[in-house]
Amino acid sequence: MADPKEMKQRCSITKLDITLRELTLSCQAEDVPGNSSTVELQDKKLVCVEYPAVVRNVNKMLDTLGGEQAVSKTFAHPNRRLELRYRPQDPFCHSLCGNRFSSNNLLLRVRRRVRKSDPNEAEIHMNVLGVIGTTYKFQGLADFQCLAVHSENGKDTSLYDKIILRKSESQEFFEQPMPYFLPPAIFSRLDTPVDYFYRPDIHQKSASQVTLNKNIIGLNRARRPHNAIFVSFIEPTVPTECLEAAKVNWTRVCMKERDKQAEEQLKRMFESRPIWSRNAVKANINIHPDKLKLLLPVFAYYMVTGPWRSLWVRLGYDPRKSTESKKYQMLDFRIRCSTKHGYSLSDMPVKAKRSALNYSLPITFNKAGPQPASVMELAAQEGTSSSRDPVPVTYRLKDSSYIFREGMLPPHRQMFYQLCDLDVESVQQVIEQNSGKEEVCDERDGWCLLGTTDKLRDIISAMIKNVIRAQKPSLPEIPKKRRRRGLDSKVPARDMDAEEEDEEEDEDDEFQPSEGSENEMETEILDYI
User: Fold this and answer.
1) Kind of pairing between the strands at 300-303 and 230-231
2) pLDDT above 90 (res 353)
3) Residue 291 parent element (H or E)
4) CA distance linking residue 425 with residue 388, whole number of Å
5) Between these two residues, 342 and 17, which has the higher pLDDT value?
6) Strand, coil or helix: what is 355?
7) Position 361 confidence tier, pLDDT thresholds 50, 70, 90
8) Starting at the edge strand that comes first in sequence, how are the strands of the sheet with 300-303 ordered?
9) Is 90:72 a contact under the CB 8 Å cutoff?
10) What is the pLDDT of residue 480?
11) 489-512 b/e with 16+ CB inside 10 Å = b?
12) Phi, psi for 372 (deg, rounded to 5)
């Protein structure tokens, strides 16, 4: 759709040598003196796309925007930018992004009919189709383009038919020699030209000069002033007191009575239980997450490695020297995915928190939106309301975020459970196998017997498997492949059971529990770095 300003300019340049004899409107409206008339305004909301090209085929134009479905999906998210690919069939085509603007324009349809007997006389029909409330404008530059072409000895060879799978191919297709072609998903994070000149950032100041009320973005981001203490499993000692800056930061934001109550409650929690996970704290204290980041370093330090990794430990308490800390160890559990457990990857009972399939490039989001509030702003704004009875705000998590019980499904595919929060009798029996006989604290299994972590994962996985099969009773218990092999070989039932166990062991080899991922833990660590 053309720019309204450009259309106005074109109309001013072009002189219409006609006589306005009659103005016919789509609605029955009364004429207004002075060769003018009123037009009925249609209450229909429209979206305008100022397409940066001459449109000759509307269908091809929509293909470059991803189709009507992609445009509708982009319109549903106010912060998303509209992507345009001039080569929609090329998976290596980098997009051109359009910004979203609010507008109050009208879409006007004007029809001009000329009499054959007198070309100077014409009839003009005009009606308003709707109101344009949103307009997408492509104001930036397209990213650098890279074609799938291999150049050698002055000859260019196309690689599209060799690297794009268009149909089912044999193994020879994947074993054929192929030049390396691994272009990045994006070359430039900016689509507007910037004069840099390799100058130092004049806005970048030292940490002592940066004011807390300003959001200054420099080349080097200032460290977050949370002042948490990180301790690894191999360090000989643990801290007994928090950093002085941690006390200062918490005193600065502890301005309301409920903040002081949360401080006293967290203090009592660490006195009754020396080790807590962050989710467990969130489920027992109603406090804003940003304030919790400042409060936790006042009473505890953060374990980075070992059986208590990703947990907060009370200052002065060393879990490596006390066998009582066995029940506070961390279990990194992942929901296993296989048809043996009653579901496939596309039919997972618990959806992932994030997926690489839904990843969006940084240029596809408009960063001109409102900035998140700082902790100081939260301290002044929390609890304020224009009404006499303000709605209480709760930040508490559910108990299922850190407690596992028999017959339930975890809320996420990866969970960090403490052993004391596994409310299952069979699990606790495995944990207490060597109670009173603990000798060495292992970096992986802690004070438990070696291999306890894997046993606990197997038990919990079996419970989840039973829950899934109870929800889907129609799923077959015996795969067809195993039944066919049993009929062909005509083995006894006892041998079939042994063979079934061997097959399940082979499948377990594909889904062995890992030693523990740090992706969730790194997310928490980054909050303090």
Assistant:
1) parallel
2) no
3) helix 289-299
4) 49
5) 342
6) coil
7) confident
8) 230-231, 300-303, 312-314, 275-276
9) no
10) 45
11) eeeeeeebeeeeeeeeeeeeeeee
12) -65, 150
Element (H, E) at 107: strand 96-114
Question: Comparing 6-10, 173-177, 439-443, which segment has the lowest mean pLDDT?
Answer: 6-10
Across 159-232, where does the E strand assignment appear? 230-231
Show Cβ contacts of residue 346 under 8 Å, excluding neighbours closer than 6 positions: none
Task: Say which amino acid occupies 257.
Answer: E
pLDDT in tens, 265-295: 999 999 999 999 999 999 999 999 989 999 9
Sign for the CA dihedral angle at 221, 222, 225, 227 comes to: positive
Extract the runs of DSSP E, i.e. beta strands, from 10-95: 19-25, 31-32, 36-37, 45-50, 82-84
Angle 238-242-248 (CA atoms, 0-180°, nearest 5)? Answer: 165
Q: What is the DSSP letter of 345?
A: G
Q: For residue 8, what pLDDT is reported?
A: 42
CB within 8 A of 230, min separation 6: which ones?
301, 302, 304, 525, 528
Q: What is the DSSP letter of 185?
A: S
**Could you tell me which residue, 509 or 475, shows the higher pLDDT?**
475
The yes-or-no verdict on residue 477 having pLDDT over 70 is: no
The reported pLDDT for the residue numbered 303 is: 94
- What's residue 425's pLDDT? 93
Q: How confident is the model at residue 496 (pLDDT cuts 50, 70, 90)?
A: very low
- Percentage of residues of the chain with pLDDT beyond 70: 67
Residue with tokens 């008339």: 37
User: Is 302:231 a contact under the CB 8 Å cutoff?
Assistant: yes
Query: What is the Cα gyration radius of the chain?
Result: 33
Q: How far apart are CA 315 and CA 327, in angstroms?
A: 18
Q: What is the DSSP letter of 372?
A: P
Alpha-carbon gap, residue 444 to 453, rounded angstroms: 8
Please give the helix or strand (H or E) that residue 102 lies within, else none.
strand 96-114
CA 483 to chain centre: 43
Place of tokens 């100022």: 50
- pLDDT score of 336 more than 60: yes
Q: What is the pTM of this model?
A: 0.57
Which pLDDT value is given to residue 455? 94
**Confidence at residue 300, expressed as pLDDT on a 0 to 100 scale:** 95
User: Pick from 57, 59, 87, 83: which is nearest to 70 by CA?
Assistant: 83
DSSP 143: P
Neighbours of 159 (CB within 10 A): 16
* Nearest by Cα to 446 from 233, 242, 258: 233
Q: Alpha-carbon distance 134 to 463, whole Å?
A: 51
Residue 191's Cβ-side half-sphere holds a number of Cα atoms within 13 Å equal to 23
Residue 189 burial (10 A CB sphere; 0-12, 13-18, 19+): exposed
